[in-house]
Design brief:
By secondary structure, the chain is mainly alpha-helical. The protein has helices at 10-26, 33-55, 62-94, 96-104, 107-145, 161-174, 183-196, 206-231; strands spanning 152-154, 200-202. Helices cover 75% and strands 3% of the residues.
C-alpha cells in the first residue's frame, strides 16, 4: 500500500479519524455541537505531540519527513478548519434564538442571515487552508537553508482552534440565558484574519505545550461537568 504507517504518523491519523467522527456527529440529526467539541479537543491533544513523536525516529528519509509535513497539514485542514465550521453549523441548527429570529424575519431576510452565517464559516475554512499551505511552502524553504525546528510562527496557528472554540461553549454553559451562536461566526472571522496575519508568535517549547494541553484537559472536564448539570 502507498503511504507511511509507522508510529511517526499514528497521532496524525488518530487526529484525522477524530475530526471525521466529530464532523459526522456534529451534523447528525439536528446537530450535536457539544459532542463535536470533544473530538476537536482530542484533535488538539494529538497535534500537541505528533511532531515530537515523529522526530524521535532516527534516520527518517526525506520522503518520510515530507510525507509527515503534508499529512499533518491535511489532517489539520479537517480537524481545525472543517470541524470547527461544522460545529458552528450545528450550533445554528440547535439555537432557539437564531431559529426564532429566522421565523420572525421575512423569508428573504432569514435566508440571507443563514447565507451570511455559512459564508463566514466557509471563509474561515479558506483562511485555514491558505495558512497551512503557506506554512508548508515556507517550511520547505526554511529546511533547505536552516534545518532543525522553527522558532517562530507567522500568523496564528490553526491548531489554536482546539482551545479557543471550546471556550465558546463553556461560556454558553455559564450564561445559559445568552445565546453565543452569534458570537461563533464573529470569532471565526477574527480567527481567520489572525491565521493570515503577519504577527510573529514564538513556537512553544515543551513547557508551553504542556500548559496548552492542561488548558484543553480542563476544558474537557468542565464541558463534561457543565453538560451533566445542563441536562439536569
Amino acid at each position: 500500500m502507498i503511504g507511511v504507517y509507522d508510529y511517526t504518523v499514528i497521532l496524525t491519523y488518530l487526529s484525522l479519524l477524530s475530526a471525521g467522527s466529530g464532523i459526522v456527529i456534529a451534523l447528525s440529526g439536528d446537530g450535536h455541537p457539544y459532542y463535536g467539541m470533544f473530538f476537536l479537543l482530542f484533535c488538539g491533544l494529538c497535534d500537541a505531540f505528533d511532531g515530537r513523536v515523529a522526530r524521535r525516529k532516527a534516520g527518517r528519509t526525506a520522503m518520510e519527513i515530507n510525507y509527515g509535513i503534508q499529512i499533518d497539514s491535511l489532517a489539520d485542514v479537517v480537524a481545525f478548519g472543517v470541524l470547527p465550521a461544522c460545529i458552528g453549523v450545528a450550533m445554528m441548527w440547535r439555537s432557539p434564538v437564531f431559529n426564532h429570529l429566522f421565523g420572525l424575519m421575512p423569508k428573504g431576510f432569514g435566508i440571507a442571515l443563514r447565507v451570511v452565517f455559512f459564508a463566514v464559516l466557509i471563509l474561515y475554512i479558506l483562511a485555514a487552508v491558505i495558512r497551512l499551505a503557506y506554512f508548508n511552502v515556507t517550511e520547505e524553504e526554511r529546511q533547505k537553508t536552516e534545518g532543525g525546528t522553527r522558532l517562530y510562527y507567522t500568523g496564528l496557528p490553526v491548531t489554536s482552534a482546539s482551545i479557543i472554540f471550546p471556550l465558546v461553549l463553556l461560556i454558553q454553559f455559564l450564561t445559559p440565558h445568552f445565546d453565543v451562536t452569534f458570537v461563533y461566526p464573529i470569532l471565526s472571522l477574527l480567527m481567520g484574519f489572525a491565521f493570515l496575519s503577519k504577527i510573529r508568535i514564538k513556537k512553544p517549547k515543551f513547557k508551553g505545550i504542556m500548559i496548552m494541553v492542561g488548558i484543553g484537559v480542563i476544558e474537557f472536564i468542565l464541558m463534561i461537568l457543565f453538560s451533566h448539570v445542563f441536562r439536569k
